[in-house]
Design brief:
Blueprint: H1 2-29, H2 38-45, E1 51-52, H3 62-72, H4 84-95, H5 106-115, H6 122-138, H7 141-151, E2 153-155, E3 158-159, H8 161-169, H9 178-186, H10 201-214
Parallel strand pairs: 1-3
Antiparallel strand pairs: 2-3
Helix pairs in contact: 1-6, 3-9, 3-10, 5-6, 5-7, 9-10
Length: 226
């Protein structure tokens, strides 16, 4: 009897923690800039610096915003957090013998970067999916995009569009050109390997493709989804 009550209370405590804490933080972060992310803490533990400067979305170049959407999640303004067409394509490719590739949306990446640790386990992917649903319910698309562009990694100890633009191109994020925005988007899959201001031939070609696709991305006047 005593152990049964203890286990029930422990289960309820864990349930409240898993459900209540993320919801409370998302409600807070809807209006307050997140001070730090797990990845930032991990990188600092490994000896990296922390360079980040939060800026509102309207102070980030539309060229960069369009390029990131075109590169990372072309249907960002249309879906509810999950791009099911991309998920189905990834599953079909895997069944044909290709390696399992990600089908992460910008919302999923924001949830991962904001709350979770960097690995590829099914446990972490499960938490990521859960947080994605909650984020889409509590935040609007503009806040998701603004947060992503302010916390995503763009180099060793370098986070967010403002700090990255100043380090890589010596301009504020608002002044990034179409080419610079495309180059910054092009390195996002592996920002520790590639640099937007020293692009390889592959990154240069990829940036050209992204710049072309970005022309078809429409934005609202405030930079978010129309």
């Amino acid at each position: 009897m005593r152990w049964g009550r203890f286990l029930r209370r422990a289960f309820l405590a864990v349930l409240v923690l898993l459900v209540g804490l993320p919801a409370a933080l998302l409600a807070l972060y809807r209006v307050v800039s997140p001070p730090v992310t797990p990845l930032m803490v991990i990188r600092m533990w490994d000896g990296a610096d922390l360079r980040q400067r939060w800026v509102p979305l309207e102070r980030i170049s539309p060229h960069l915003i369009r390029s990131v959407i075109a590169s990372e999640d072309a249907k960002f303004c249309e879906h509810d957090g999950f791009d099911w067409d991309a998920v189905n394509d990834a599953i079909d490719d895997y069944r044909r013998g290709d390696r399992l590739r990600g089908a992460s949306t910008i919302t999923m990446q924001t949830a991962k970067n904001l709350f979770l640790w960097p690995d590829r386990t099914w446990l972490r992917k499960g938490f990521e999916a859960y947080l994605t649903v909650m984020m889409e319910a509590i935040w609007d698309k503009r806040r998701i995009l603004e947060t992503y562009l302010n916390i995503v990694e763009w180099g060793d100890g370098l986070y967010g569009a403002e700090a990255a633009a100043r380090v890589h191109f010596r301009v504020p994020a608002s002044d990034l050109s179409r080419r610079q925005g495309a180059l910054m988007a092009a390195v996002l899959p592996n920002p520790l390997r590639w640099s937007p201001n020293r692009p390889t031939d592959y990154i240069s070609r990829r940036a050209g493709t992204i710049a072309t696709r970005a022309r078809s991305v429409s934005l609202a006047k405030n930079g978010g989804c129309p």
